[in-house]
Design brief:
The structure holds two protein chains of two kinds. Chain A is an alpha+beta fold. Chain A contains eleven helices and seven strands. Classes of the chains: A alpha+beta, B alpha/beta. The structure holds flavin-adenine dinucleotide (FAD), iron/sulfur cluster (2 copies) and FE2/S2 (inorganic) cluster (FES). One iron/sulfur cluster binds next to helix 8 and helix 9 of chain A.
Chain lengths: 324, 654
C-alpha cells in the first residue's frame, strides 16, 4: 500500500517539506520507509541510523511533530490515510535533511567532570551492592538519542540559553555520578547548579515523556539533585516543584494553566531562521503548544487544565530569578 | 586528474580507525603512552556497533564459581573454535580479560553485582562456569559508554595541562576512511577519507594505524549487523598488502526475527531456549530431537519427557536438544525450512507461550517480550515467535601477531584489533568472547602501535600521487551516470545470502564467484546522484567496493576449505577433517590483477604446556594421529619431570 509522506529536505541555507508516495508493508517502522525512499526515489536523502533496534540512539527525528526514534516508530501507529510528516530535530542546527548538528551535547558532556576513582582501591577491589548501583544504572541506560535535549523548552526555542544550560541528558549524568557508590567527588550537585544550569529547569517533565529508555529523568535525577542543592542554596523552583509539579499526576487535578491565545494555523514556510533551525515553532505549528511533550496517544487540542507544559515565556521571570 | 581541491591535513602519531570497544581501548592506550592520537568513526561518538552487544563480556574472574580460572576459559575458547584458534591469542585473552574488565570499573563502569559486592557473572553457551560480566541485557552500551567517558576524562586532563581538550586525543566522528597510504618501503604513512557531513576530504599523516572497524555482515540479506559493517577495515588492509585469515568462518545465530520484514535478522536471545522455549516446525513437531549429532548423543535427551525434566532436575536428566551449540541449531532450522516445514514467513516457531506461564515469561524475558510486542505485534506469552538464522559475526579478519596486533603480510605500521582481526576465535566464537577480545587486544594494539611509532627514526611520507588517486576514486561515482548503488547492494546481499550462506555447496560457491565478478563490473560503474554533503547514496557507492572484496574472500575461502567446521558448513563435505584443522586459509590481493589469492598456511601448534590442559580423548576428536603422538610424548616428558600433566589437566577440567 502506498502512503503519503512529507519529509523536510534542505540544509542550513533553507529547505522545504517534500511530498513522497511510498510503499508501506506490514509491520514496518518509519526508518524502513526512509530507507525505501533512499533506495527508490531519493538516494541522497540524509538520515542517521545504526542499530535499527532502539539501542544506539542515532535515528532521532520528529515524526508528526513528536520527537521519536524512527526505528521504533511503527507505521501501524498512524491512522489509515494519515500523512506522516518527518522533520529533523528542531533544537539543533540542520546539517542536511534529517541530520542535525548535535555537537552541543558532546561539548556539554566534555565539561562534565569525569568519574573520580577512589584513591585507595586498586582494580578488582571495588565492592558495591546491587541496590546501590541500581540507581546510577538507570541513568546509564541512556542511549544518547538527545530526544530529551531536543524537547526541553529551555533550549528548544532559546539558542541564548545553550551556553549556560547543559540539558536533561547531562543532569542524569550528574545524578549518576552523584549516586555512584564509589565516585570520589562530592561536589556533583553544586556543579549541576553552578555550571550546568540546573536552576533553569522548571520540572515540566517533557524530557521524561520522550525518553525512549523510559528513564525517569525528572523524578529520579533532576528533583533529587535540586533537593540536595537546596540544602545549601535557595532554589525557588524546588519550592515550586514541591508545591505544584510533584503532586500533579498523583491524585490532585492540575491547577488551571494560564489562558492561552488560540493558536493560529499558519502555513509552513520554507526557510530556516538565522540559527539554522526549522521554522516550526509552536506558534506556526498546526497544534496548540509544542506537541512533543505529550506522547502520541494524546488527542489535540488538549483540555487546558490537563496540560503540564508551560510555555517558556510564562516562566521566564522565575527562571531568571533562579539563575544565580 | 590532479586535484585542485584543498585537502585538510592532520598530523598524528597513532590513528585509530573505529570507535567501538576495540578502537576506543586502543586509543586510550596510545594516548596513555604519550602519543598524539586520533579516533575516526563512521558514525557519531558512542554509537559504534559494540553498543548492540547484549549478553556480556567473558572473563574468568571466578566471582560466581571460584573454580573458574584462565585455563578453563582457554579450553572453552579453543573448543568453541574447534581448535582452529590461534592458541596464543586465546591464551592471552583468557589470562588478561579479568584485568581488562576490572580496569573498566576504575573508569566508572557499573556492572551488576554478586551478593558480596563483586561483579556478577552469568552462564552462556560454551562457557563451563558463569563467566560473563554483564549489565542487564545492555553490556555493550555500558562498555562503549565507559570507554567514551574515559576518553573524555583524558581530554579533560589535557585541557588542564595544555588548555585544549584535543591537544593529544581527538575524535573525528562521522568520518570515513577510504584508503590507507604507504611510503615506498611499504610502511604506513597515513589515511585518507572524507567527512560525511560535508563531503570534504581529510588526510591523516601518521606512522601507525590501528584498524578496529568491526565486521562485514551488511553483505548478507538477513543479518543482525548495522550499515557500518561493510568490511572496510578488511578491505583497507588487503589493499596495502596485509593478509586476512579464516574468512570462510561466519557465525549465523540460530534465532533471529523473521517477521515483519523490517526487523528480519534482529537477534532473539538464547535465553528463550534456556528458559524453556522449544523449536517447532509448521507441523507442530519439536524437531530438534532428529538433529542430535552422534558426538553429542550422550549429552542430550532423547524424549520430550526427559528434556522437560531437565529444567527442574539437570543432574538426573539430559539437556534438551534445543540447547545444542549455535551452529547445530542453525543448521537444523535451515534443514526444516528447506524441507518445506517452515512457517509462512520462512522461519520456524520458537514457542514458550505454551510451556510457561505469562508471569514467568514476563519476569524472565522482559526485553524479548517488549521487542516482539513493539516490533512484531506478537505477544510471546500467548503466541509462538517466528525465528530463523541470521548472519551475526565474522571470525575471519586481518592476520595479526598475537602479542602486538601487528598485521602480517608486506606492511609495517598497521595494527588490528576486535572483530576486524582474525585468529582469536578460530572457526566459531563463543558468546561473550568478543567484548573481552576487544578490550584485551585493543589495549595491546594501542600499546604496540605507540611503541612502533616511537621506534621510527624517520616519519614515513605520504605520496602525493596516492592522494590524487584516492580523491579521484572517491569522486568518481558522483561524476558518472550509471547504476543506483542500492540496486547493486541488494543484489550482492542476495548472492551472499543464497550462495554463501549457512550451508554451502561447491556448485553454489562457484556460481557466487561468477556473480560476484559481474557485480564487480557493475560496482566499477556505480553512480551517485546529488552533492557531497551527507549523501548516503554516495557513501554506499564507495562502501560497495569494500563489501565486494570481502565477499570475494569469504566465497573463495569457503570454496577452498573442503570440510565442515564451526561457522563453515559444506553440504558436500559434512564432517570435520583433522588434516584441515592444521590449515589456515590466507587471503591476499594480487598487486597486478587485483584478484583475491588464497594460500594455505599451517595453524601454529600449541606448545606442550597448553596441549596438556586437555584430555587425550577430547583431542582425539580434533587432532591427526601425528599430533596425538606429540601429545603422548609431551605427556610422558611431563611425567618424567614430575610436572604431572594429567593431574594439571584434571584439576582444570573440574
Ligand atoms: C546484536 C548483537 C549482539 C551481540 N552480543 C554480544 C555479546 O553479548 N557479547 C559479545 O562478546 N559480543 C557480542 N556481539 C558481537 C560484538 O558486539 C562485536 O563483535 C563487537 O562489538 C565488535 O567491536 P569492534 O570494536 O571490533 O567494532 P565496532 O564496535 O563495530 O566498531 C567499528 C567502528 O569502526 C568504524 N569504522 C568502520 N569502517 C570505518 C571506516 N571506513 N572509516 C572510519 N571508521 C570506520 C565504525 O564507525 C565503528 O566506530 C554482538 C553483536 C551483535 C550484532
Ligand atoms: S523537566 Fe522540563 S525544563 Fe527540566 S530538563 Fe526536563 S524538559 Fe527541560
Ligand atoms: S535520557 Fe533518554 S531521551 Fe535523553 S538522551 Fe538519554 S535515552 Fe535519550
Ligand atoms: S537506529 Fe539505533 S536507535 Fe534507531
Amino acid at each position: 500500500m502506498k502512503r503519503h509522506f512529507r519529509v523536510w529536505r534542505g540544509d542550513a541555507t533553507g529547505g522545504r517539506l517534500e511530498d513522497f508516495q511510498v510503499e508501506v508493508n506490514e509491520g514496518e517502522v518509519v526508518l524502513d520507509v526512509i530507507h525505501r525512499m533512499q533506495a527508490t526515489q531519493a538516494p541522497d536523502l540524509a538520515c542517521r541510523w545504526n542499530c535499527k533496534a532502539g539501542k544506539c540512539g542515532s535515528c532521532s527525528m520528529e515524526i508528526n511533530g513528536m520527537p521519536r526514534l524512527a526505528c521504533m516508530t511503527r507505521m501501524s501507529t498512524f491512522a489509515d490515510g494519515e500523512t506522516v510528516t518527518i522533520t529533523p530535530l528542531r533544537t539543533f542546527p540542520v546539517i542536511r535533511d534529517l541530520v542535525t548538528d548535535v555537537s552541543f551535547n558532546y561539548e556539554k558532556a566534555r565539561e562534565m567532570p569525569a568519574f573520580a576513582p577512589p584513591p585507595n582501591l586498586r582494580p578488582g577491589e571495588y565492592r558495591m551492592q546491587q541496590v546501590d548501583v541500581e540507581r546510577s544504572q538507570e541513568f546509564r541506560k541512556c542511549i544518547e538519542c538527545f530526544l530529551c535535549q531536543n524537547t526541553c523548552h529551555v533550549i528548544r526555542d532559546h539558542e541564548e540559553n545553550k551556553r549556560a544550560f547543559s540539558g536533561p541528558r547531562l543532569f542524569i549524568r550528574a545524578a549518576e555520578l552523584d549516586m555512584h557508590p564509589l565516585d570520589a567527588r562530592t561536589d556533583r550537585k553544586d556543579f549541576a547548579q553552578s555550571a550546568q544550569g540546573l536552576g533553569y529547569c522548571n520540572i515540566t517533565k517533557c524530557c521524561t515523556e520522550v525518553c525512549p529508555e523510559h528513564i525517569k529523568i525528572t523524578d529520579n535525577a533532576i528533583i533529587p539533585m535540586k533537593e540536595r542543592v537546596v540544602d545549601n542554596r535557595y532554589d525557588p523552583l524546588v519550592f515550586l516543584g514541591r508545591k505544584i509539579f510533584r503532586r500533579r499526576g498523583l491524585d490532585e487535578p492540575a491547577p488551571p494553566s494560564p489562558a492561552r491565545q488560540p493558536a493560529a494555523v499558519v502555513p509552513q514556510t520554507t526557510t530556516l531562521d538565522e540559527q539554522g533551525r526549522l521554522p516550526l515553532s509552536e506558534f506556526t505549528f498546526e497544534r496548540p503548544g509544542a506537541p512533543s511533550p505529550y506522547g502520541e496517544d494524546v488527542q489535540f487540542p488538549l483540555p487546558a487544565d490537563g496540560i503540564s507544559y508551560h510555555h517558556p515565556s510564562e516562566e521566564r521571570p522565575e527562571i531568571d530569578q533562579a539563575r544565580d | 586528474m590532479t586535484t585542485t581541491e584543498r585537502i585538510e591535513r592532520h598530523h598524528y602519531d597513532v590513528v585509530v580507525i573505529g570507535a567501538g570497544g576495540a578502537g576506543l581501548r586502543a586509543a586510550i592506550e596510545a594516548r596513555l603512552a604519550g602519543k598524539r592520537t586520533a579516533i575516526i568513526s563512521k558514525s557519531l561518538f558512542g554509537k559504534a556497533h559494540t553498543v548492540m552487544a547484549e549478553g556480556g563480556a567473558a572473563a574468568a574472574m571466578g566471582n560466581v564459581n571460584s573454580n573458574d580460572n584462565w585455563m578453563v576459559h582457554f579450553r572453552d575458547t579453543m573448543r568453541g573454535g574447534k581448535f582452529l584458534n590461534n592458541y596464543r591469542m586465546a591464551e592471552l585473552h583468557a589470562k588478561e580479560a579479568p584485568d581488562r574488565v576490572w580496569e573498566l570499573e576504575t573508569y566508572g563502569a557499573l556492572f551488576d553485582r554478586t551478593k558480596d559486592g563483586k561483579i556478577s557473572q552469568r552462564n552462556f553457551g560454551g562457557h563451563e562456569y558463569p563467566r560473563l560480566a554483564h549489565v542487564g541485557d545492555r553490556t555493550g552500551l555500558e562498555l562503549i559508554r565507559t570507554l567514551q567517558q574515559k576518553i573524555v576524562s583524558l581530554q579533560q586532563e589535557d585541557k588542564q595541562e595544555y588548555g585544549d581538550y584535543e591537544a593529544r586525543i581527538k575524535v573525528f566522528a562521522e568520518t570515513t576512511i577510504t584508503e590507507l597510504l604507504t611510503d615506498d618501503d611499504n610502511r604506513i604513512a597515513g589515511a585518507f577519507g572524507y567527512y560525511r557531513e560535508t563531503g570534504q576530504f581529510v588526510l591523516f599523516s601518521a606512522p601507525a594505524v590501528v584498524l578496529a572497524t568491526g565486521g562485514v555482515g551488511k553483505s548478507w540479506k538477513v543479518t543482525s549487523n548495522s550499515w557500518e559493517y561493510t568490511g572496510d577495515g578488511h578491505a583497507l588492509a588487503l589493499r596495502v598488502g596485509a593478509t586476512l585469515i579464516n574468512m570462510e568462518f561466519i557465525q549465523f545465530h540460530p534465532t533471529g526475527m523473521v517477521w515483519p520484514p523490517s526487523v528480519r535478522g534482529i537477534l532473539v536471545t538464547e535465553s528463550v531456549r534456556g528458559d524453556g522455549g522449544v523449536l517447532r516446525n509448521s507441523e507442530g513437531k519439536r524437531f530438534m530431537f532428529d538433529y542430535v549429532p552422534d558426538v553429542f548423543r550422550n549429552q542430550y535427551a532423547e524424549t520430550e519427557e526427559e528434556a522437560d525434566r531437565w529444567y527442574t532436575d539437570p543432574d538426573n536428566n539430559r539437556r534438551p536438544p534445543e540447547l545444542l551449540p549455535r551452529d547445530e541449531v542453525a543448521r537444523a532450522i535451515n534443514a526444516e525450512i528447506k524441507a518445506g516445514r517452515g512457517t509462512p514467513h520462512g522461519g520456524v516457531y520458537l514457542d514458550i507461550a505454551s510451556r510457561r506461564s505469562p508471569e514467568y515469561i514476563l519476569k524472565r524475558l522482559p526485553s524479548m517480550y517488549h521487542q516482539f510486542k513493539e516490533l512484531a505485534d506478537v505477544d510471546i506469552t500467548k503466541q509462538p515467535m517466528e525465528i530463523g538464522p541470521t548472519c551475526h559475526y565474522i571470525m575471519g579478519g586481518v592476520e595479526v601477531d598475537p602479542d602486538t596486533g601487528a598485521a602480517g603480510g608486506a606492511i609495517q605500521g598497521l595494527f588490528a584489533a576486535g572483530e576486524v582481526s582474525g585468529g582469536m576465535h578460530g572457526s566459531n566464537r563463543l558468546g561473550g568472547n568478543s567484548l573481552s577480545d576487544l578490550l584485551v587486544f585493543g589495549k595491546r594494539a594501542g600499546e604496540h602501535a605507540a611503541k612502533y611509532a616511537s621506534s621510527l627514526t624517520s616519519r614515513p611520507q605520504v605520496k602525493p600521487s596516492d592522494v590524487d588517486a584516492a580523491v579521484e576514486t572517491a569522486l568518481a561515482p558522483l561524476s558518472r551516470s550509471g547504476e543506483n548503488p542500492y540496486a547493486i547492494w541488494h543484489d550482492l546481499q542476495q548472492v551472499m545470502q543464497d550462495l554463501v550462506g549457512l550451508i554451502r555447496r561447491k556448485s553454489e560457491l562457484e556460481e557466487s564467484l561468477k556473480q560476484l565478478a559481474d557485480l564487480k563490473d557493475r560496482v566499477a560503474k556505480v553512480a551517485a546522484t546529488g552533492g557531497r554533503r551527507f549523501n548516503p547514496g554516495w557513501h554506499l557507492a564507495l562502501d560497495l567496493r569494500n563489501m565486494l572484496l570481502v565477499s570475494e574472500c569469504a566465497a573463495k575461502a569457503a570454496l577452498t576449505r573442503e570440510e565442515s567446521r564451526g561457522g563453515h558448513t559444506r553440504e558436500d563435505y559434512p564432517t570435520m577433517d583433522p588434516a584441515w584443522r592444521q590449515v589456515n586459509l590466507v587471503c591476499s590481493l594480487d598487486a597486478g590483477s587485483g584478484e583475491v589469492v588464497i594460500t594455505r598456511k599451517p595453524v601454529p601448534a600449541m606448545p606442550p604446556e597448553l596441549l596438556l590442559l586437555f584430555d587425550r580423548a577430547e583431542l582425539a576428536k580434533y587432532l591427526t594421529d601425528e599430533e596425538l603422538a606429540d601429545y603422548d610424548r609431551a605427556l610422558a616428558e611431563a611425567r618424567l619431570n614430575k610436572l604431572d600433566g594429567s593431574a594439571a589437566a584434571k584439576e582444570a577440567t573440574l
